[in-house]
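Q&A FORM
Asked by: J.P.
Topic: structure of Peptidyl-prolyl cis-trans isomerase

PROVIDED:
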Amino acid sequence: MKKILFGLLMLFSATSFAAPSVEFETTIGNFTIELNQKQAPITVENFLKYVNDGSYVGTQFHRVIPGFMAQGGGFDKDMNERSSYAPIRNEASNGLENLTATVAMARTNNPNSATRQFFINLNDNDFLNFSRNSAGYAVFGKVTEGFDVVRAMGQKPTRSLGMMKDVPITPIFITKVTVK
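REPLIED BY: S.T.
REPLY: Here is the structure written out as tokens.
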């Protein structure tokens, strides 16, 4: 009986504290993000609200800059901005850095303005990290599967569309999002 209880306790421990992952299906392929709840709890909770309410589905990667990043989650197929929950506090001082394949929150010049838009770093972008001189951009996860799909986004031709720059000519839509 003790062995069974111990086994169940170990199973519970291993699964209850595992980092959640989110799989994105897009029109050019799939990728998975492992979230870091320990170091970015506010940001992960915020991100999962949009995942769980289904509002990332039908949005597009609207800003893609080769060698820099791919940004999405905020605009629908007609480039209308999706509604957002309240902005969150910037967690860029959490020790996570904007390295290749990491995922961070997009924001305005106000450090505490992140809502639903996120970006995936295509390269190491140290200048986006928190420092004495910069509020930084909060990293909250990393692409663990399908980074080749994200890299392919960075190779797509882009254009200006109204006030928006670096918009893929052929839109890249998020078609499904699943918590794993």
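FOLLOW-UP: The chain has one domain: 20-179.
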